[in-house]
Design a protein that fits this description.
By secondary structure, this protein is α/β, with parallel strands linked by helices. Helix content is about 35%, strand content about 25%. The protein folds into three domains: about 150 residues, FAD/NAD(P)-binding domain (3-Layer(bba) Sandwich), CATH 3.50.50; about 110 residues, 3-Layer(bba) Sandwich (FAD/NAD(P)-binding domain); about 110 residues, Enolase-like, domain 1 (2-Layer Sandwich). It contains 17 helices and 24 strands. Strand 13 and strand 14 form a beta hairpin. Helix 1 packs parallel to helix 10 and helix 3 packs antiparallel against helix 4. The longest helix is centred in the N-terminal third of the chain and has 19 residues. Its cofactor is FAD.
Length: about 450
């Protein structure tokens, strides 16, 4: 059976769901295809449950560090119940009905591009002039000897768990590995965090990795860099032992794989639409999110920046392009946050990346405890809290920044806006920040550039 639509969206996560709604609101007849849950990874197994699980032990740690407070009781069963409510017990009826109320036809099942303007799903062939690929990513599982046989967790098991394991070995110290390591440890698990490279968060400035490594070790997490898993075995008692390349081993009740994600493009049939994939399996796109004639790719599947807020942004860009409006994606001021404690926030380029692009870089780095009043009013004995701003000397504008401090994910947007607007440094120097706030650190850092 064949049906004709103005647009067919493959994947109903943040990007696909948003795009389908916008096109339907513009009067188009839209079909959305989803193989799992409407809403995608973020609301069920990633952003939402992880932040719900991170917050209670963070608040407990805040209380421990604040003057005159004791340590509150922690009740994981209640936290898990609250999480289950927010992820709707993995029931997507409500978001599915929201699509249908907009007049969008929802098809459940694995969708495949069968040729230009043709999508096959659930024994139907959907014909259209516009295909939007928004099928996201899946966890990358390393080819470690014995890992499949021993069994492992990904973010899905970690964010929907009902009991905290006694011990966990985490493979990978990117954002997911760091967040889940801290969450599991603070709920009572003994955690060993293994990072194959010599740096935590290797895509960020090296100092960021140093600061969060110190904080995690102070928490009691066994953080090991230059530690690559070579093999995994499971004993009769169910414990997993991870043998390390170069010698040594660690063990835990659970092995959690958090080394990254890859685009979910296997078997999608993009080649039938004349589209070649990138080296990592990503769908390469232009500034309008176009992947080819009549095909757009939005969200994590195109490998640009794997964030929910970028997926929603790209949905707006692609829809504007489809509807004949001028829109080009601009990624210069996209914030990125690791919701650990202390928080890590960054935007734009690191100093090293800026130099690699040929920018005449000038930087200013501050120890916040020595520079502003907020850290000592926020907690006793503030831990390593720093920020750095990166400026283009020739143009006199900011091109990047990072911060490691409480609530950094909230106040990084001050720099994001400055980068987006290309605000002159002279203007930023004349900006007045509220006292005492962490945001003062940015204005102090801009003034320090003059020195």
């Amino acid at each position: 059976m064949s049906d004709r639509y103005d647009a067919v969206v493959i994947g109903a996560g943040p990007a696909g769901r948003g795009a389908a709604g916008q096109l339907a609101d513009a009067g188009m007849r839209v079909a959305a295809c989803e193989r799992e849950l409407v809403g995608g990874e973020c609301p069920y197994w990633a952003c939402i449950p992880s932040k719900v699980l991170l917050r209670p032990p963070e608040a407990r740690a805040d209380a421990r560090r604040a003057a005159g407070l004791g340590e509150p009781e922690q009740r994981f069963a209640e936290v898990a119940a609250h999480r289950d409510e927010l992820i709707r017990h993995l029931d997507d009826s409500a978001p599915a009905q929201a699509l249908e109320k907009k007049g969008i036809d929802l098809f459940r099942g694995e969708a495949r591009i069968a040729g230009p303007g043709r999508v096959e799903v659930a024994d139907r062939t959907l014909e259209t002039e516009r295909i939007l690929v928004a099928c996201g990513t899946v966890s990358t599982i390393p080819p470690v000897d014995g890992l499949e046989q021993a069994g492992y967790w990904t973010n899905r098991e970690a964010t929907t768990l009902s009991e905290i394991p006694e011990s966990v070995v985490v493979l990978g110290a990117g954002p997911v590995g760091i967040e889940l390591s801290q969450m599991l440890h603070r709920f009572g698990a003994q955690v060993t965090l293994l990072q194959a490279s010599e740096r935590l968060l290797p895509r960020e400035d090296h100092r960021v990795g140093e600061l969060i490594g110190e904080a995690l070790r102070q928490d009691g997490i066994d953080v090991r860099t230059g530690a690559r898993a070579a093999a995994v075995t499971r004993g009769e008692d169910g414990r997993r032992t991870v043998s390390l390349a170069g010698g040594g081993e660690v063990s835990g009740a659970v092995v959690l794989v958090a080394i990254g994600r890859r685009p979910r493009t296997d078997g999608l049939g993009l080649e039938e639409a004349g589209i070649e994939l990138g080296e990592g399996g990503e769908v390469e796109v232009d500034e309008h999110c176009r992947a080819g004639e009549g095909v757009w790719a939005i969200g994590d599947v195109n490998g640009t920046l794997p964030f929910t807020h970028v997926a929603s942004y790209q949905a707006r860009v692609a829809c504007a392009d489809i509807l004949g409006r001028e829109a080009q994606a601009d990624y210069a001021a996209i914030p990125r946050v690791v919701f650990c404690d202390p928080e890590i926030a960054a935007v734009g380029l690191s100093a090293a990346d800026a130099r690699d692009q040929g920018i005449d870089v000038v930087t200013s780095r501050l120890d916040l405890v020595d520079s502003i009043a907020r850290p000592i009013t926020y907690e006793r004995e503030p831990r390593g809290q720093e920020l750095e701003i990166v400026a283009d000397r020739a143009r006199g504008v900011l091109v990047g920044a990072w911060a490691v401090a409480p609530l950094a994910g909230e106040w990084i947007h001050q720099v994001a806006m400055a980068i987006k607007l290309r605000a002159p440094l002279e203007m930023l120097r004349d900006t007045v920040s509220q006292f005492p706030t962490y945001a003062e650190g940015f204005t102090e850092a801009v003034r320090a550039l003059e020195a």
